[in-house]
Specification:
Keywords: Cell membrane, Membrane, Transmembrane, Transmembrane helix. It is a multi-pass membrane protein. Its main location: membrane. With 764 residues, the protein is an alpha+beta fold. The chain folds into 3 domains: 2-56 and 196-448 and 633-761, no CATH class; 67-182, no CATH class; 460-627, no CATH class. The chain is 51% helix and 15% strand. The strands form 5 sheets. Strands 10, 11, 12, 14, 15, 16, 17, 19, 20 and 21 form a 10-stranded mixed beta sheet that branches. Strands 4-3-5-2-1-6 form a 6-stranded mixed beta sheet. It has a two-stranded antiparallel sheet with strand order 7-8. Strand 11 and strand 12 form a beta hairpin. The two termini are 40 Å apart.
Length: 764
């Protein structure tokens, strides 16, 4: 008996599958729309599941090429390579460079390099070669004029758009700081990275939830595409003898097949196409190799299994509100069955309850699982409260207004559920983004600090320690080299030393330069060669300072010095001595020089010309462009990841709304054609379509603003940050969301005009 029942159930589910695949043109179209909608969501979910492999691939290649470890003495052998690191940038893009010199016949090779070219030539990454060969790279070509002998393979790059070069030289001396002797690559950096602070950890958690939750909601909504047509088909099945339970199993089979096709389409065509195009795009400075875009097997299996099961659950839940009879379909409208509010309120309240214990938690006590659950429940509150709010407000709309408004209102009152489901995705994304903006503003204030730089006196600082690749002879030589760059309007170069007084651990800063350079560092009463000045330091005249880092460094007797007032942005709180050359300590073997550089800020390429001039002085000369604020690298990395992910999510939201709108228009094509046939204007119908989308969106954005602010306030309370409402961010998020809806409506107009043709009245 049980075997017979199981066979019957399998047969009924199989009938639903056959209806999905062989139910004529209408059935195939509905199945195709559902599959496309599911495929869009599955594609993004698979990309999200690939993030761990993308990060691990980038990290593994970065560690495999690592050569910046210290404290290791390498014995002589024919595998030794001398290496000098060069960290540069070009128009905001970092440039990773290495000058190398083989010591033996079989030098060790960095990852991605098959052999080292002769001295005077270099290997470059494909992206850097393309840039150097293009007109846009002319300034960079001046900086690195060596002959390009080949390219670096993927094993030596963290991304396809990374700018990397390896230049072979014959004048690298190990007696100079920065030159290392290597017999291998890949030693991981010394020390573990500090864990993320609670604020950054919470920011990452919220980003993941906010970006992925709308995707999951859209996948669930896509499984209900064409629900009205499916219900009519089920009524026909009942007419030939099926009971209610059988129709449910037929609908389940149809939903599972459509969702499974979406999984195959998303995992095949869309995902493979996305991988193929991955290397062509760079978002927020992040580029990835195609081979890195691989979902974690466990997560991929979870997606493959969960999506069809979610389609099955959503379909069965939707059928609970529909009575399929042999002669038609009866929908339990909101007017007859009022939506209950009590359980909808419980959802966001439960989210608040999960987040409340996290207030004031430090990094060790912070519970990411509790944070994820709380944020998910609060955002889910938007999805469950919006249908109730929609029914209460739209049901009160009367017959006032123009014809397009009346058509829209009546349609929303009779069958607005599909529109609300589509808008739910936008509302949840908007609520999460508003909360994220509030938390993001707090994090930016926490991890962005004013530098205190006075940009009216200098716009850049250069610093260099004597290097044999480009010998530094004197401050005058540095001044002349930097001034040769077009757009540099002034340079003040000084030498920097550090000294300790006796056994005191405090180090006094000693700056040596001519009077013009010293006046850029402090307010001097008068100055001539032979003078010395004290800034923020006690009277050190006649006292002996030990220069350098070691206790046996050279001694220098401080000459008679007069007090001076330092500029607020130059020496900060460091105490020290300013001296002119004739009374300065001797120049050490590894002298460090700094230069204050004034730039023509109206010249867009002046920074690149300055870096080129600095490279001619020495490859080790660093160039720091002064800014009023500085952001920590960890926060900047999270911010770049947010921008990249948000772009993908916004694209999905727009595409999902477009697919949903087209599906609704397709189901109403005969109604639209009939209205036009009876004299309704196309413009009137077009405006009614806009109103049908705008009203739920307005309600959804209003609810999203309220719950988003509540969520943001709770998150700020968790990290003990004062609650401040950023109305500009709230308005911008709402405006962007409304703009997406408007663009989707405009994009659906061609399909609407086509569906309103008289041939839309044909019926098979």
């Amino acid at each position: 008996m049980r075997l017979t029942r199981a066979r019957r159930w399998i047969s009924e589910v199989g009938l639903g599958a056959r209806l999905a695949l062989g139910g004529g043109r209408e059935g195939l179209l509905r199945t195709g729309l559902t599959a496309v909608g599911v495929a869009l969501g599955v594609t993004v979910l698979l990309l999200a599941a690939s993030v761990p492999t993308i990060l691990s691939g980038r990290t593994a290649r970065d560690q495999a090429r690592n050569d910046t470890y210290y404290g290791v003495v390498t014995p002589r052998s024919d595998r030794i390579v001398r290496s000098l690191s060069v960290e540069d940038s070009f128009r905001g893009h970092p440039v990773r460079g290495r000058f190398v010199q083989p010591e033996g016949a079989h030098p060790v090779l960095p990852p991605g390099v098959r052999s080292l070219p002769p001295a005077g030539s270099m290997l470059v990454s494909p992206a850097m070669k393309q840039l150097l060969d293009s007109p846009d790279g002319a300034l960079l070509r001046e900086r690195y004029p060596a002959r390009i002998a080949g390219t670096i393979g993927q094993a030596g790059l963290i991304g396809p758009n990374e700018l990397v070069f390896i230049a072979v030289r014959d004048n690298l001396s190990t007696d100079v700081l920065g030159v290392r002797r290597l017999d291998s690559y890949g030693t991981p950096p010394i020390g573990d990275r500090d864990p993320l602070s609670p604020l950054l950890l919470l920011l990452v958690v919220v980003i993941v939830v906010v970006l992925l939750m709308p995707v999951a909601m859209f996948v669930a909504a896509a499984t209900r595409f064409g629900g009205e047509q499916r219900d009519r088909r089920l009524a026909a099945v009942r007419l030939v003898g099926a009971d209610a339970a059988m129709t449910h199993r037929i609908a389940a089979g149809e939903a599972v097949v459509s969702a499974s096709l979406g999984v195959l389409l998303g995992g095949g065509l869309f995902f493979l196409a996305g991988r193929a195009l991955a290397e062509r795009f760079e978002v927020a400075g992040i580029s990835v190799f195609t081979t890195d875009v691989r979902p974690v097997p466990v997560l991929a299996a979870l997606i493959v299994v969960a999506v069809p099961l979610a389609a099955l659950a959503v379909t069965l839940l939707a059928l609970r509100r529909v009575v399929v009879e042999p002669l038609g379909v009866v929908r339990r409208a909101a007017a007859r069955t009022k939506r209950r509010l009590w359980w909808r309120i419980i959802v966001p309240v439960a989210g608040l309850g999960m987040l409340a214990p996290l207030s004031g938690a430090d990094g060790a006590e912070f519970n990411p699982r509790r944070a994820v659950g709380g944020v998910v429940l609060l955002l889910l509150g938007v999805a469950v409260l919006l249908p109730w709010l929609f029914d209460r407000l739209v049901g009160r709309f009367g017959g006032a207004g123009g014809l397009s408004w009346q058509l829209a209102v009546r349609r929303l009152q009779l069958a607005g559920g599909s529109t609300v489901r589509a808008v739910n995705t936008i509302a949840v994304a908007a609520a999460g983004t508003i909360a994220l903006q509030m938390l993001f503003a707090a994090a930016q204030a926490e991890y962005t600090r004013p530098t205190g730089a006075d940009l009216s006196r200098a716009q850049a600082i250069t610093f260099v320690t004597d290097s044999p690749v480009g010998p530094v002879r004197s401050p005058a030589d540095i001044d002349a080299a930097l001034r040769s760059a077009r757009g540099v309007t002034g340079v003040s170069t000084y030498r920097e030393e550090w000294g300790r007084l006796g056994e005191d651990d405090y180090q006094y800063r000693v700056l040596i330069g001519d009077c013009a350079a010293l006046r850029d560092l402090a307010d001097l009463p008068d100055c001539a060669d032979g003078d010395a000045f004290l800034v923020g330091a006690p009277d050190l005249a006649g006292k002996v300072l030990t220069l350098g880092d070691s206790s046996d460094g050279p001694r220098w007797t401080v000459p008679v010095a007069r007090p001076a007032t330092t500029h607020s942005d130059s020496l900060s709180n460091r105490r020290g001595v300013l001296v002119t050359p004739s009374v300065a300590p001797p120049v050490p073997a590894h002298a460090r020089y700094e230069s204050l550089v004034r730039l023509d800020t109206g010249d867009p390429d002046v920074q690149e010309r300055l870096r080129t001039a600095a490279m001619r002085v020495s490859p080790t000369m660093g160039v720091a462009i002064l800014e009023r604020q500085k952001t920590t690298s960890r926060f900047a990395g999270i911010r770049n990841g947010l921008y990249a992910s948000a772009a993908v999510t916004l694209l999905l939201v727009g595409l999902s709304l477009l697919v949903s709108t087209l599906e609704q228009l397709r189901e109403r094509r005969r109604t639209l054609a009939a209205l036009v046939a009876f004299g309704a204007r196309r413009g009137t119908i077009g405006w009614s379509i806009l109103w049908q989308t705008a009203v739920p969106v307005a309600l959804g954005l209003g609810l999203a603003a309220v719950l988003g602010v509540c969520l943001g306030a709770v998150l700020l309370r968790i990290v003990a940050v004062p609650i401040r409402l950023d109305w500009a961010s709230i308005a911008s998020v709402s405006g962007i969301s409304a703009g997406v809806v408007l663009l989707v409506t405009v994009a659906s107009m061609p399909a609407l005009w086509r569906l309103m043709r008289p041939d839309g009245l044909r019926f098979e």
